Amino acid sequence: VAVGGDKSAVLSHVIEELVRFRTKVRHYALALPEAADALPVEGAAGAKEPKQEQKEKRKQLMQERKPLLEACDSLRGDLAAFGIHIK
The pTM is what? Predict the structure, then answer.
């Protein structure tokens, strides 16, 4: 509940901050670390192994960050119950 002032303007700012926060969390959760040593060296023996390792690391990272993505989806769902829809 906003005390004084234009309540709809205050609510609008709160919603904007929630959307920004959710966006930052999702970007972090979906971002991959850029490690130069994770890239396979062209022409190197076994160059397919680092690519497979990279896929495994990505899969593990996404699994670890899944709760963050679920929390973002939950926030979106909770706000939808109040008529606030984030696309």
Answer: 0.58
Closest-CA residue to 31 (of 68, 70, 74, 82): 68
Ranges of each domain in the chain: 1-33+63-86
Place of tokens 């896929």: 55
- Mean pLDDT, contiguous 10-residue spans, the chain (87 residues): 61 87 90 57 54 87 90 89 84
Q: Which helix (H) or strand (E) holds 19?
A: helix 7-30
Distance CA 47, CA 39 (A): 9
> Which pair of tokens denotes residue 17?
């901050």
